[in-house]
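Batch 3, record 17
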Amino acid sequence: MEKTIDDYIFENFPEEATCPICLSNTNKMCVLVPIYGTDNGRIIASQPVHVECLLDRVVYYPDCRTIVAYPEIS
Ligand SMILES: [Zn+2]
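Prediction for the assembled complex:
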């Protein structure tokens, strides 16, 4: 079955989770980001992240084809 944007983007942020970028659980649109090292070959754990936070912090490194979203350093 083909995935749609609704499989990745969620209108509500989970109450029990914390966005790793802004460190809040403000109820805003979020995306589930796979957690490195948790893949068991079938499923992978994922972390809810606010869409706005992710897009505000994302950087692309073309030399290594890597995309990274940096949390705010305070
Ligand atoms: Zn956030």
